[in-house]
Amino acid sequence: SLISYKPTLQTGYYYGYSHSEDSINATIFYKSIVLQPTQESPTAKATFQINGAFEIFRAYVGIGDKCEACDDNSTVDGATMSEYVWNGTAAPQLLPSAANAMCGHNPSWVSIDIKNADWLRLQVEAKGNVLCDIALYGDPEVCYSSGSNTSCKTECEYRWTEETKCQLDPECLWDDNNE
C-alpha cells in the first residue's frame, strides 16, 4: 500500500491511515490517504519517491465524508484531484485521471500507469471552501508485475465476504486456507 511510504515533500494537510474507517459517500475504506488544502496552501500535495519500482498506482478517489460543512450542500465547491509522475529533473507529467470531485458523490476508481517513474505526486486543488475539500484516496496501492502475476492481485476477504463476489473481481484471489 502507498500509505506505508512517507512523502518526501508535502503542502497542506496529509495523513495516511491504516486500520481506521474513512469513507467517500458512505463507501468505507480501511486504508486511505487524506489530502486537504489549507488557507496557506490552497493546493495540497504529497510527493513520493518511488524510484521506478512500480508499474501501477490505483485507488478509489473522491471527497471524504468527514466534511461536516458539506452535509447540507453536497454539490457545493468541490476540488480537482490529480496525479503527476516524473523522472530526475524532468517536469512533472499530469496523468490522465484528473477529475473534479464533489461532496456526496460516489468514489471514482483510478488505475494509472506509473511505469519507470521516479516520483509520484498526489494533488488536490480547492475550488472554494478549503475546509470542505478533504480529498480521500481509498485503498491506495502501488503495484509491480512479475510476468503474468501482479502484486495488485491480492487476497480479498477484507473486500468481499463471499467467494463468488471475489471471483468476479479481476484483482482478487480467494484464500481457501483461512481456517
Looking at this protein, list some descriptive labels.
3% helix; mainly beta; 47% strand; globular; 5-stranded antiparallel beta sheet; single chain; 179 residues; 6-stranded antiparallel beta sheet
Spatial extent as radius of gyration: 17 Å
The N- and C-terminal alpha carbons lie at a distance of: 25 Å
Rough outline: globular
Strand runs, count: 15
Quaternary structure: single chain
Specify the structural class: mainly beta
Uncertain parts: none
Mean pLDDT: 80
**Main sheet?**
6 strands, antiparallel
Spell out the helices and strands N to C.
Answer: EEEEEEEEEEEEEEHE
The helix content is: under 10%
**Percent of residues in beta strands?**
over 45%
What does this structure look like?
The protein has 179 residues and is mainly β. 3% of the residues lie in helices and 47% in strands. It is built from one helix and 15 strands. Strands 1, 4, 6, 7, 8 and 10 form a six-stranded antiparallel sheet that branches. Helix 1 links the parallel strand 14 and strand 15. The longest helix has 6 residues. It is globular and about 45 Å long. The mean pLDDT is 80.
Short description, anyone?
The protein is mostly beta strands and 179 residues long. The protein has one helix at residues 163-168, and strands at residues 9-11, 13-24, 27-36, 43-49, 56-63, 79-86, 93-94, 99-101, 108-113, 119-126, 135-143, 145-146, 149-150, 154-155, 172-173. The longest helix is centred in the last third of the chain and has 6 residues, at 163-168.
